[in-house]
Each structure stands twice: as structure tokens, then as C-alpha cells.
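REQUEST ID: PR-0412
SUBMITTED BY: lab tech R.K.
PRIORITY: routine
TASK: structure prediction, single protein chain
INPUT:
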Amino acid sequence: MLAKTAFLASTLLLPHASTTAPYPLPNSTYPSNSTLCTLDPPLCHGTPTAPAPEYICHHVFPTDLTVVNSRYPNYTTDHLHRSHDFFMLRRQRKDQGEIATQVQFNGLPITTSGLTCRLEFVLPNPQLQRISGPNPSFNVYRVEREARALATWETYEKDAGALFFGAVNGEREALERTRRVGGGVAAVNSTACNATMAFTMAMMYDSEEPNYWQFTNVAPPAFPVQGFRVVYGC
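STATUS: complete
OUTPUT:
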């Protein structure tokens, strides 16, 4: 009987209390339907509205293209053809005027970024190029160069043991397939990014008729975009 009287008294003294859910009281600093996670989500699951990581493709175009010619092995006065965006390759027989091109990119992510850089070749507009020969396919070599370093035929020959990086198939059927299936873009190869990256391009084959390819590397906002670019971030 005494216990029943005590229970009754407590009910009268705390009219808002509940026998089924005694906490929290109405004057609690936490709403009755809240938890620590709903009040401060980052403590439990991070910020719910935080956007998912985005993979954005960054396209970087060459800062310099340098044509080197075996007939002018030490030419350092200026760029041949006085152009920093002109690409030209030629090969026939040894000592018959071989031409190669160095392509350099600056302002790329540094090596410690952990990012991968992909060298791509956007096929030139057929009306904005000259291509000829039985097989104008060419090799691509990765070379070490300081930013804005001069390139000559002599520096090209010193890179005879340079790292082979990839190749571009210049045969007509291969080019047509790349335009049809690959959207006109050939992925040469990928490697770890570096602030400065340089590549040397040279024809693969000797032939009776010269293998030849020339065009102007075009970057946005100019149109049509064509030639070499480095892609990272996606």
C-alpha cells in the first residue's frame, strides 16, 4: 500500500512525466526525437550533403613544337619554319634529309601528385594536313628536357636510346578506323605526370618514296582542335 501511495504522489508531482519514456524531459536541451547523429551528422557519417568526388578531364596542349632536320644539325637561331606549333616528319633513306619533331608540355601536375598523364593524338583535319608515302607511321619516345630547352638534330641523335613510349599507325585503313571508332583520337600511352614532359616523334620506316606528314597543332579556342595533347584527371 505504501508503494502504491508513493507512485501516486510521484505522478502528481511530475505531471508531464511518462512511465513508458521518462527521458528526456520537456526542458531537455535535445529534442525528444533527436540523437547525436541527427544533431551533428559529421560525427557519425560525415557531411551527408558532401558531393561525390568528381573526375574531370583536364586537357593540356603543347607549349612548344620544334622541328629538327638532319640537314641543319646545329640550327639554334630560331625554330625552323619560325613556328612553335608546326609538326613535320619525313624519312626516306639515310642521309636523304630526315626530319623529326619534339613536342613539349609544361605546367602539368608534379610527379608527387600521383596523377597519370595520357598522351593523345587528335587526328588532323584531312584538309589541313599533308601526308604521303607507303607507310607514314611514326614512333614516339619519351625524352628528358628542361622547360623551354632548345632542340636540334644533334640532341635528337643523342636520344637514340630514349625510352620508347608508343606509336601512331599512319596507314590509311588505320586512320579511317580511328576516325570512325575512336572519334578521331588515338591514345598513344600513359605514364606518371611530371611538371614538364617532352616527346620526340620520328618516322618508323625507310622507303623508296618518302614517308611524310605535316600539320599545325591547334589548341582551343581555335578550331578545329588537332594534334597532340596530354589528358589527366579522368
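NOTES: Residues 1-39 have pLDDT under 50 and may be disordered.
REVIEWED BY: pending
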